[in-house]
Amino acid sequence: MLSFLGRRIIATIPVLLVVALIVFMMTRFAPGDPATAIVGDDASAANLHRVRSNLGLNDSLPIQFGRWGWQLLHGSLGESFFLKKQVSELIGQRIEPTLALTCLTLIMTIMIAVPLGVIAAWRHGGWLDRMLMGFSALGFSVPAFVIGYMLIWLFALRWQLLPVQGYSRISDGLGPWLSHLVLPATTLSIIYVALIARVTRAAVAEAMTEDYIRTARAKGISETRVLVRHALANAAIPIVTVIGIGVALLIGGKIWGIAGMILAIPSTGILKILLSYSSSLKPLVILIEDKAKTNEEIKESIEKVKEEESV
Question: Using one digit for the tens of pLDDT, what is the confidence trace for 72-85?
């Protein structure tokens, strides 16, 4: 067993190297120039050359890749010229809200989607099955930001049960922490419930046609045990696979980022979106990063950013 795990771990090393090379080359051959983005289009050739030299962009690609890989192995992810901070610091600031919302979304999704999918497969072709298929189509079709705005209007503005936006750390109290997570977790879980419930239904429905299910029923085993211990257990592989993909999407996906922007949750998804675009989003960073600012302070910060960019 240990030798098998060791071979698997060793086999991942060339895969990681190939992925790292592809990521590096994609960033280098992507449209645009980091030096031009820093100094602006109107900068002189001397300033542009100076910035490119400081960033090491004038070196050959193998040297750049080696330097990048060496820094990555030492835990240095570089500095964001957009936010003027270390990338590791930016990610560290967003670890807690990202993991908290990911865990709560997964708990809500699994508790709702798996039982729904199993019952729909058990009553295949019935009214619950049809309702689940309709809900799945609706969940895939409606964008995350539309769901977020609808939930904000209903639970925060109309009924005033939950806060509209923002994130409260768990050190500030369990109640405020949960109250700020309910709306974004519900927004994201609606999408993933539609996906996981549909996958669960398909996998369990296929398992229900197998011979071992008929054998279990012939032995007089209760229907609940047949569904859970036999059908669901043997259909778990595709369900767990989809849940694993959902974890990756929740941590860094743009769906997460869009929903987080609407609800002002500082997450790695938002960071991914902000760092993917130009400095035209910089005023938006101010609004998301410091929700405690007053309107006057926000306006002053935005004007300061505009003055810095004009200079």
Answer: 888 777 777 766 77
Q: List pLDDT tens digits, range 148-176.
A: 888 888 988 888 888 877 778 888 888 88
What is the tally of structural domains in the chain? 2
For residues 28 and 116, membership in a common domain is answered with no
Q: What is the pTM of this model?
A: 0.72
Among residues 23, 48, 76, which one ends one of the domains? 76
Percent of the chain with pLDDT over 70: 79
Residue 151 class from Cβ within 10 Å (0-12 exposed, 13-18 middle, 19+ buried)? buried
Taking only the tens place, the pLDDT of each residue in 48-103 is: 888 888 878 888 888 888 888 888 888 777 777 766 777 777 777 778 888 888 89
Any domain includes 83: no
Six token digits for residue 171? 């050190």
- Answer whether residue 288 is part of any domain: no
Q: Cβ distance 169 to 177 under 8 Å? A: yes
Q: Which domain holds residue 22?
A: 2-76
- pLDDT one-digit tens code per residue, 178-195: 888 888 888 888 888 988
DSSP code per residue over the chain? -HHHHHHHHHHHHHHHHHHHHHHHHHHHHSSS-HHHHHH-TT--HHHHHHHHHHHTTTS-HHHHHHHHHHHHHTT---EETTTTEEHHHHHHHHHHHHHHHHHHHHHHHHHHHHHHHHHHHHTTTSHHHHHHHHHHHHHHHS-HHHHHHHHIIIIIIIS--S-SS----GGG-HHHHHHHHHHHHHHHHHHHHHHHHHHHHHHHHHHTTSHHHHHHHHTT--HHHIIIIIIIHHTHHHHHHHHHHHHHHHHH-HHHHHHHHHHT---HHHHHHHTTS-GGGHHHHHHHH-TTS-HHHHHHHHHHHHHHHH-
